[in-house]
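# nightly structure sweep
# worker-07 picked up a monomer target from the shared queue
# config: single-sequence mode, recycle default, output format = structure tokens
# input follows
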Amino acid sequence: MTKKTVLGMPRNVFYTICSILVIGIIIGSFYDYQISVALSNKTAIGDFYQHYGNIISHLLYPVAGMCLFKGLKKKGSNFNTLAWGVLGFSLFWTFYSFLDTSGDDLREVYGYVPGQPGSHLTLALTFLTWVGLACLTAWLAYLILDDENADMLLAIGSVILLAGIFSEFINSWLKIVGCRPRYKYLITLDDPASEYRNWWEMIPYLKDESSFRSWPSGHMTKATIMLALPMLADVIKGKKAYLKNLFFAFAIVWIVALGYNRIHMNAHFLTDVCFGVLITYCLYALTYKLFFSIFEKDSQGQ
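# output follows
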């Protein structure tokens, strides 16, 4: 499977997407600032999408946890404790990712005001909302995932969960190393162009300051997990051949829309968006090759 495919799609798809992202990086390297000036136009719809557009991406973590759960359960009762532990960790990580991306926004929707009476209730509602979404997704995944091929379930779950976790850590580290001012920060200055910095002009900045964390895009790092969707078509009950292409098309539309949104809402430059996807996509591809090679060898040896 890994010799001809990457994340469930033909290798040519992987090379094509990477090539498009590299072209975007080259164009952005010369015209990042001008592109942001042209596309900058904050809207209410864009604001909603930038706050909640990655919720679906986060919900692939409990799906990955359920893949691992069903795969380990299929292996035998000796793996029951591990199965429940992995599922629990996937739910925890989902909750952590929710809070990292959309926690403040949902608390605001519930009317949270720091230090005001009733704040405990809004915090509890936020917590229960995220936990409820994660648990509901895991339960639905339990219903629609088959357990015919335990090794495939384990490989898919491992790729999504581990590559997702590592990509977020790598992105956080690169943001500190790159320390590129966001466009929304630049437009608050008298002379924005004078403060503009190309992506390769890296000056590490350790202070926790969001205005200086533009490169690479964290939202796009999280969104790239959607490109793992085609793999799940192989472990869905009553699997249909068209599901791979349908899942892939949905992922591409979602990622492109979010990428445009990040530029449109003054949060990132074109190169930030392209690097966020490219780095994460390559990490997923390497993880895919590693885990599917391991489980394919195990299957052949049995």
